[in-house]
Amino acid sequence: MIRNFIGYLLGFLVFVVCIPALMWWASGRPFPYVPALPLAIVACSLMIAGLALSIRAIVHMKRVGEGNPFDAYNHEVAPRTRHLMTDGPYRYSRNPMLVGIYIYDAGVLIGLWNWWALLVFLAQVILLTLQVRSEEKRLEKDFGDEYRAYKSRVPRYFIK
């Protein structure tokens, strides 16, 4: 129970608080910063949609997969899922939580509208793609042919 809580708390702090804060800091924008209304509407819409997708994927993983997603570079932070996730939001993406985070951060990026924030976003995408590749090796080991078949038909993020 406590390991699940720690996993969710770390995920929230890293992806919902720290990365956007780093994007804001890199942008050099004052605090508080409010973008022009059209940008604010698009930014908030993307942030809400991204969080909704990530939360939906986490809840589905907890209920169906009976585990937690937070596994960082082969270090188990919380109990791993016991079942391969192939339905719900996982029908469309092998990593719907990350897609949600990318959508959320795209909203932050649009709100900040700054090249330095874009560089932070791109660095995050590169680091998380490396993490995902590491996780894919573990999933192949844990689930074998079932995972390889799933991997062949469902894109890593959202584009095949």
Describe this structure in words.
With 160 residues, the chain is an all-alpha fold. It has four helices and two strands; from the N terminus they run ααββαα. It has helices spanning 2-27, 37-64, 96-112, 115-153; strands at 71-72, 75-76. Strand 1 (71-72) and strand 2 (75-76) form a beta hairpin. The longest helix has 39 residues, at 115-153. It is elongated.
What portion of residues is helical? 55-70%
Q: What is the end-to-end distance? A: 36 Å
Q: How do the strands line up in the largest sheet?
A: 1-2
**Secondary-structure content class:** mainly alpha
CATH top-level class: Mainly Alpha
The CATH topology is what? Four Helix Bundle (Hemerythrin (Met), subunit A)
Give the percentage of residues in beta strands. under 5%
How does the overall form come out from the CA principal axes? elongated
What's the count of strands?
Answer: 2
Number of helices: 4
Taken together, the total number of domains comes to 1
Features of this protein?
160 residues, Four Helix Bundle (Hemerythrin (Met), subunit A), two-stranded antiparallel ribbon, elongated, mainly alpha
Sequence-ordered SSE layout with sheet pairings:
Layout: H1 2-27, H2 37-64, E1 71-72, E2 75-76, H3 96-112, H4 115-153
Helix pairs in contact: 1-3, 1-4, 2-3, 3-4
